[in-house]
Specification:
By secondary structure, this protein is of the alpha/beta class. The protein has one domain: STAS domain (Transcription Regulator spoIIAA, 2-Layer Sandwich), CATH 3.30.750. It is 45% helix and 27% strand. It contains five helices and six strands. Strands 1, 2, 3, 4, 5 and 6 form a six-stranded mixed sheet that branches. Helix 1 (28-38) runs parallel beside helix 2 (58-73). The longest helix is centred in the middle third of the chain and has 16 residues, at 58-73.
């Protein structure tokens, strides 16, 4: 069992959660709780940075679907930054999470997309 580290920062109004390590059944509940706590109602959305996530299993994918559903039900969105060439992106594509949540290679692009959507919504 590897411990996953959750680092949280904000880029303006957008919370960014960086997950480092392996996201699996052994730690998914605590990770989900940490992320839900950060995704407060006043935030326009949430960016998950999986750049340094080395592994994700079905339990990890399940919480990403649930997180996307919760945010969407509040009129907010989830964006995920994940490298193009890694196993984690392949898992997200194979499980069709990428059909539900936009994937970005760069964290900055994911943040910009959340901010852009917020500006369009306000207009």
């Amino acid at each position: 069992m590897e411990i996953v580290r959750v680092d949280i920062r904000h880029d303006g109004s957008v919370p960014v959660c960086e997950l480092r390590g392996e996201l699996d059944a052994s730690n998914v509940d605590s990770v989900f709780s940490s992320i839900v706590e950060v995704s407060r109602a006043e935030a326009p959305g949430l960016v998950l940075d999986l750049t340094f996530t080395s592994y994700i299993d079905s339990a990890g994918v399940r919480i990403l679907f649930e997180l996307a559903r919760r945010l969407r039900s509040d009129g907010r969105e989830l964006r995920i930054a994940v490298p193009d060439d890694g196993i984690v992106r392949r898992v997200l594509v194979l499980t069709a999470l990428s059909d539900v949540v936009p994937l970005h290679v760069e964290v900055a692009d994911a943040i910009a997309a959340v901010k852009e959507r917020t500006e369009i919504t306000r207009s």
